[in-house]
Amino acid sequence: MSTQLNVAIKISILSALHFDKRSKRLNVNKKMLWVSIIFLIFTATNAVELSGILKLFTPNDVILSAAADNMVSKLEKEYMKYLETGVETPTFNYLTMQLGSSRNGMNKYVRNIHKLKPVDEFFVCVVCRAMVGVIDRTFRDEQNDLNGPKGDAMAKKIAMDACQRLKIQTKEVCEGLFDGHWPILRYIIENTSVDAKTICSFYIQFTFCNVADHPKFNFNLELDDADQPSIIASKSNRGRKTSKDLNILHLTDIHHDPLYEPGSLAECDEPLCCQRHKSLAIGTSKAAGYWGDYRECDLPWHTVNQAFTHIRQAHADIDYIFQTGDVIDHMIWSTSMAKNKVVYERVVKRIYELFPEVPVYPCIGNHEAHPLNLFSPTYAPDSVNSHWLYEFLYDIWSKWLPADTKETILRGGYYTALARPGYRIISLNNNDCYTDNWWLFYNGTDMKTQLMWLYETLLAAEGANEHVHILAHLPSGDDTCWNVWSREFNRLVRRFRETISGIFNGHSHADEMHVHYTSGGYAVAVTFNGGALTTWTYKNPNYRIYRVEPKTLQVVDHETWIFNLTAANIAGAAESPRWFKEYIFSEEFTDDLSPAGLDNLLEQMADNPRLLEKFWRFKMLSTDQRLRKGCNRSCMLKTICRLAVTVNDQRRRCEELTAKLTKAMDSSYE
Known about the structure:
GO terms for molecular function: acid sphingomyelin phosphodiesterase activity; hydrolase activity, acting on glycosyl bonds; metal ion binding. InterPro entries: ASM_C (IPR045473), ASMase/PPN1_MPP (IPR041805), Calcineurin-like_PHP (IPR004843), Metallo-depent_PP-like (IPR029052), Saposin-like (IPR011001), SaposinB_dom (IPR008139), Sphingomy_PDE (IPR011160). This protein is an alpha/beta fold. Helices cover 44% and strands 12% of the residues. It has helices at residues 3-14, 30-46, 50-54, 62-85, 90-102, 118-140, 151-165, 171-191, 196-203, 278-281, 301-314, 337-354, 387-397, 406-412, 439-442, 448-463, 483-495, 565-571, 585-588, 595-607, 609-619, 624-629, 633-643, 652-669; strands spanning 17-20, 25-28, 246-251, 320-323, 360-362, 415-420, 423-427, 467-471, 500-505, 511-517, 523-530, 542-548, 555-562, 580-584. 47% of the residues are buried.
């Protein structure tokens, strides 16, 4: 963007502001401000490079939202003209050129939306709204070809044209994603009135793109919490270590890639590499390592098998195993029922073979599904129903699970089981909250069903004086977890805070935790995240061992084991990776793992940036590239905020901690 334009924008905005010396207040000339905003929108979408205009504003700026609306309207209109006439107008070419060149690189599918930069968020928002809008309008127009026998071919033409014109991904990836997902998307479009803005607001939660209201997608659970006593303090009852503590292995996000080939190309345009083009990589730094690779690559079988074998040999005292989902690889454009079944069965059966006497409690990750991320309601037609997955999983899981889990597993992939008297496991399929699960667009209130089952199960456990561990793939505070679902889930956590002894997640590929709070700021529960066995992306493989007090089932300590991938790949096939205990939580941070104890730890981290930085190093699993890059000011603030958020639009504790951390960091620089 030109210097003159930059100055003009700033002057026009500043001209709307006036400082009153008497009142010592900054006044806003609303008319002038809106003139400035209109000018900015016009320049952003008509005359300048998007990457330049976006540098001036944060992702949550209302101006970016207006700019996105303006560009979506134009792009959708021009695309419709192009489809009807086959003529590419200058405006059409200019808009698509601006979008195609605006964001950083091609690979949008390897990053979660909440990790994108503003330029990329703007790109995803505009393209999502415009292209869904084009398909939506043409598909619902009775006079349009999409309603006839050419409908599927026309929809694919639109999608592939946008994919290549806007450089979204490679042709192979776009074609694979379309072929896998289109039948379900078509069913949803045909059978609901949901519009493009609603769809994209779900998909891109908590950014400027999330501006639509969702009255049809809101619900409240009917709980018996009206007569519950007020919470006036954090939960501080603390389990103590005993000689009879249980040892629980937490495996998550294994992501086995059956096509991984050592020495193949580890840098590619697709979301997953390390599978092919070996001739291009030989003798270069782009060659995939033997035991895995830090780049966009998952685990070969020999690494998965070696990890399981090591655990069997190093930990003879494991009482239970939690496996919190995502066994399937990141080759998202080439999934199938057959492939997913083969990969999943190979991994899980190996766990059963090596730990025949240890009960295994699994839950479903978003990658288990085909198509990726999509989990249908029970009443969906067979052609788009997920029942094939639930039937397959029950056949495998039934080795360790009791027969009475069958009904709910077949209904929706969730279950409860009594591990021992007084100790209950609840395993959720919380892909109900995943914003990439398009069935949310179909009927959001369907997602209430499993949460009501959870309520009834916790109510029964409370009545039986049982302590509960909840397993679920996604952390409820993730930007990709629907805030309505996570809000109601956290209501349940608060209501049953004395019954729930621990919550265990995966998905983020980070060794971390999350403290659950009441609206008054009191800590009532803790979620523990097991990291990931896969190296995708830029992480050392890891697993966790929890030490659990047998009476209250509280986690009283945990340790994380890793191996350094750089060192392992230097040694190569001649030597197995050297696993080691990276840290023990009580030795590095605190031996009080109660919600109150961990809330106090967060206070200490906010006061002491070096303590928080140490937590971040372990969160990143001491990965070489991550440590070299370090954690800057923005990273530190995001790290402490994430620890305190379990509903993404409830950030009171996050704001308190970040304010304190900001002050501590500022004082350390003085």
